[in-house]
């Protein structure tokens, strides 16, 4: 499907800094700059993937958009309206239209709850329809995600990992959201089941026009599911581009490193991986200038002092690098 | 590949007819049945399969480190010609580290949190070799250097929690290598790591293997990792081998419908996908080991299942030269 061009969601300079406190008075001694000035937009029916190493701020970005952690700065516009200006009713409607699916189907669902109650919960909270209508909707949703409606009375712990992820997706779909944040929705699943869930997500997008903000560290999954890809490094987006472009011609040296590190999947085209240690700096002690300069093969003097801005290149690609 | 000399044809590890049982609430059931394989010096054997198919149980049994609920119900494990399962506890402990060592997914389970990295390695060295404390300490720093730990003298005096995930994994590999084992068993050694760090660790392991000639059994569920490092591959399903072949034979022409399904299900494996494309998934899930179907365990998910598949379990047999599978189908191309 060709995504519509007016952005549904626009994020500008999003910032989430967690205070580091210490001492008897718990005075703030520093900050973890988990998300440090992130900007992107998301179209209707589009999938944007956030990729990057552990701790680069992918989940925190998703949680901030869901209102589950408080941003310390930046602006978010939804459907042309500034979230900050939302009154309570508008905020409630925003929360209905944004849903999230988490990585771990085992910990994100209450094992002692019946499936129908899990899927119904958002309908109850937002008082949608009569009890009978909610019942019908639950059956419809179960069918939609490939669960048998006659299992509605079963408990979450009676389901396999893949089935639990289907339950989580049904719950996220209950209120007909416009955007679903998928935080590593398949990384806890076996390949064969992972493929089932990826197909489901892809079918749902085609049929319902839902947008995904997908968080994943598996480049295979990213290549399958995305229209566009944003690469994050230490709280910043260092490259954002259409999927086909970024896989064919990665712009940022860090994107290149990620792609070079992914296994080849062809035993005749093995990479010669280097055994050299190359440890990731932490979000608490960010390098000066370009955050990637401690690992970058193209580093020059300017990289150590001046942070490069994200600038537009050909083909809708944006790259933050002095030398690229 | 060059001609291998005859010495490398002698397996350093041979497993035959291994059966492992678990005593659960519903009585005892088999988690691993009829396992047979061998590895030679310098060779990498990969074992792949879905969660719960018995990969870790197989690995742990090779060091006699099975959890309490599990027991070896039959079979043989022969290491450098010696029957490992018949040994007493003392001999077993001598063998571990010296002949066979293990690398786990989560280094914190293998490393002692209250001991400095260097002390742990030195302790293991002293357990196996007559040497002074100073020689053992020096060996610890040497192996840390071998695994390319930055600043090895300083890292030796640090505690596990003071290291990053990638460095901890290096420390555990150093611990496993400290006494020059002949065989290394690595159970998902890179699953918890970022791809960038995974690439380094895989690079490191294959580097070391080339230099030291260690035999390796690598357990993973990631076919990408397999394609990068394996010489030979065993595919397991529900506690049994369903396919075994050289890496090229397996990737060029997988035989078993489960292996074929797995390869099709990996996203990004083929040409660049268009949004809206579908992956070739395998329907259903792995059956519970305590309630396996009567015939072929894969039959409920197999598009090619026939009446015979539902009734009789297919034997594990050589379908093509050097290429084994457990399936009632015949090789159409043969
Ligand atoms: N509530 C919190 N308080 C303090 N620091 C936090 C908090 N949540 C996250 N962080 C820190 O913020 C940074 C970004 O974390 P985040 O979970 O967003 O990373 P991620 O990219 O999702 O990583 P992963 O791939 O491991 O899930 C990390 O350094 C993390 O330790
Ligand atoms: N300590 C234990 N007690 C009882 N059963 C166990 C125990 N550990 C594992 N099992 C069972 O034994 C079977 C095989 O487990 P094993 O850990 O070997 O699987 P695996 O192939 O390594 O899976 P994974 O990819 O998830 O690590 C599983 O069905 C599991 O539930
Ligand atoms: S700005 Fe410099 S250090 Fe940063 S990625 Fe570009 S070349 Fe590398
Ligand atoms: S034996 Fe039958 S059911 Fe089993 S994998 Fe072969 S064709 Fe499929
Ligand atoms: Mg995360
Ligand atoms: Mg395991």
Explain how this protein is built.
- The complex is a heterodimer of chains A (324) and B (334).
- Chain A is of the alpha/beta class.
- Chain A has a single domain, classed as Rossmann fold (3-Layer(aba) Sandwich).
- The two termini of chain A are 32 Å apart.
- Chain A is globular.
- Chain A has helices at 58-65, 88-97, 115-125, 131-144, 161-173, 191-208, 219-225, 243-248, 253-261, 301-305, and strands at 7-22, 27-43, 47-51, 73-78, 81-82, 98-101, 179-183, 211-215, 228-233, 236-242, 311-312, 318-319.
- In chain A, 47% of the residues are buried.
- In chain A, strand 7 (179-183), helix 6 and strand 8 (211-215) form a beta-alpha-beta unit.
- Chain A has ten helices and twelve strands.
- Chain B is α/β, with parallel strands linked by helices.
- Chain B has one domain (2-99, 181-333): P-loop containing nucleotide triphosphate hydrolases (Rossmann fold, 3-Layer(aba) Sandwich), CATH 3.40.50.
- Chain B is built from twelve helices and twelve strands.
- In chain B, strand 11 and strand 12 (323-326) form a beta hairpin.
- Chain B is globular and about 70 Å long.
- The two termini of chain B are 25 Å apart.
- The interface between A and B is large, with 58 and 54 residues.
- Bound molecules: adenosine-5'-triphosphate (ATP) (2 copies), iron/sulfur cluster (2 copies) and magnesium ion (MG) (2 copies).
- The site of one iron/sulfur cluster (SF4) has 13 residues of chain B, from loops.
In terms of DSSP E residues, the strand content of chain A is 15-25%
**Bulk shape of chain A:** globular
Question: Could you report the average pLDDT of chain A, rounded to the nearest whole number?
Answer: 90
What is the terminal-to-terminal distance of chain A?
Answer: 32 Å
- Percent strand of chain B equals 15-25%
Q: Which homologous superfamily in CATH is the superfamily of chain B?
A: P-loop containing nucleotide triphosphate hydrolases
Approximate shape of chain B: globular
Task: Kindly report the average pLDDT value of chain B.
Answer: 90
Oligomeric organization of the protein chains: heterodimer
Question: From the alpha-carbon coordinates, what is the Rg of chain B to the nearest angstrom?
Answer: 21 Å
Named CATH topology of chain A: Rossmann fold
Give the H and E element order of chain A.
EEEHEEHEHHHEHEHEEHHHEE
**CATH fold topology of chain B:** Rossmann fold
How many individual helices of chain B? Answer: 12
What percent of the residues of chain A sit in helical stretches (DSSP H or I)? Answer: 25-40%
CATH superfamily of chain A: P-loop containing nucleotide triphosphate hydrolases
Spans of at least 5 consecutive residues with low confidence of chain B: 1-7
Number of domains of chain A: 1
Query: How many structural domains can be distinguished in the coordinates of chain B?
Result: 1
What is the total tally of β strands of chain B?
A: 12
């Amino acid at each position: 499907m060709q995504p519509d061009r007016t952005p549904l969601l626009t994020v500008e300079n999003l910032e989430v800094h967690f205070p580091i406190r210490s001492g008897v008075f718990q005075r703030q001694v520093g900050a973890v700059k988990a998300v440090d000035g992130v900007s992107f937009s998301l179209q209707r029916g589009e999938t944007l993937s956030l990729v990057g190493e552990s701790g680069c701020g992918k989940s925190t970005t998703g949680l901030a958009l869901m209102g589950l952690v408080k941003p310390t700065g930046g602006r978010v516009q939804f459907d042309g309206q500034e979230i900050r200006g939302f009154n309570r009713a508008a905020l409630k409607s925003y929360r209905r239209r944004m849903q999230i699916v988490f990585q771990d189907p085992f910990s994100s669902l209450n094992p002692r709850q019946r499936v129908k109650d899990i899927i119904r919960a958002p309908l109850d909270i937002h008082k949608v329809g009569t009890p009978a209508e909610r019942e019908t909707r639950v059956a419809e949703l179960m069918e939609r995600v490939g669960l048998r409606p006659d299992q509605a009375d079963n408990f979450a712990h009676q389901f396999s990992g893949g089935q639990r992820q289907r339950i989580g997706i049904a719950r996220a779909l209950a209120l007909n959201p416009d955007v679903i944040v998928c935080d590593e929705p398949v990384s806890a699943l076996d390949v064969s089941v992972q493929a089932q869930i990826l197909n489901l997500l892809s079918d749902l997008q085609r049929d319902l026009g839902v947008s995904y903000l997908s968080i994943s560290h598996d480049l295979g999954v990213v290549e399958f599911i995305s229209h566009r890809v944003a690469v994050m490094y230490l709280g910043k987006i260092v490259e954002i581009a259409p999927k086909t472009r970024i896989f064919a011609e990665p712009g940022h040296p860090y994107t290149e490193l990620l792609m070079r590190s992914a296994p080849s999947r062809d035993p005749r085209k093995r990479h010669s991986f280097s055994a050299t240690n190359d440890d990731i700096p932490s979000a608490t002690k960010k390098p000066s200038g370009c955050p990637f300069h401690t690992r970058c093969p193209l580093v020059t003097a300017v990289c150590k002092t001046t942070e490069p801005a994200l600038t537009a290149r050909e083909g809708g690609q944006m790259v933050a690098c002095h030398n690229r | 590949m060059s001609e291998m000399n005859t010495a490398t044809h002698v397996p350093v590890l041979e497993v035959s007819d291994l059966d492992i049982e678990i005593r659960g609430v519903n009585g005892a059931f088999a988690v691993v049945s009829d396992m047979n394989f061998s590895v030679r010096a310098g060779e990498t054997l990969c074992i792949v399969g879905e969660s719960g198919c018995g990969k870790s149980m197989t690995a742990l049994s090779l060091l006699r480190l099975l959890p309490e609920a599990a027991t070896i119900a039959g079979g043989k494990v022969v290491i450098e010609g010696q029957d490992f399962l018949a040994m007493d506890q003392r001999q077993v402990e001598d063998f571990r580290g010296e002949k066979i060592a293990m690398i786990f997914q989560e280094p914190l389970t293998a490393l002692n949190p209250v001991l400095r990295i260097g002390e742990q390695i030195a302790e293991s060295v002293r357990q196996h070799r007559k040497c002074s404390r100073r020689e053992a300490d020096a060996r610890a720093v040497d192996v840390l250097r071998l695994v390319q730990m930055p600043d090895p003298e300083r890292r030796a005096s640090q505690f596990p929690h003071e290291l990053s995930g990638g460095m901890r994994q290096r420390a555990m590999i150093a611990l496993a290598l400290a006494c020059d084992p002949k065989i290394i068993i690595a159970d998902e050694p890179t699953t918890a790591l970022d791809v960038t760090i995974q690439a380094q660790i895989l690079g490191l392991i294959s580097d070391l293997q080339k230099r030291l000639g260690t035999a390796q059994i690598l357990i993973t569920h990631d076919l990408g990792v397999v394609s990068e490092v394996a010489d030979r591959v065993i595919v397991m399903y529900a506690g049994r081998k369903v396919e075994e072949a050289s890496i090229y034979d397996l990737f060029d022409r997988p035989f078993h419908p489960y292996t074929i399904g797995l390869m099709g299900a990996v996203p990004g494996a083929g040409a660049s996908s268009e949004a809206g494309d579908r992956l070739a998934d395998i329907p259903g899930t792995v059956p519970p080991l305590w309630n396996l179907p009567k015939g072929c365990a894969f039959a409920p998910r197999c598009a090619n299942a026939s009446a015979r598949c539902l009734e009789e379990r297919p034997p594990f047999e050589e379908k093509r030269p050097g290429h084994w599978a457990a399936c009632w189908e015949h090789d159409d191309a043969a």
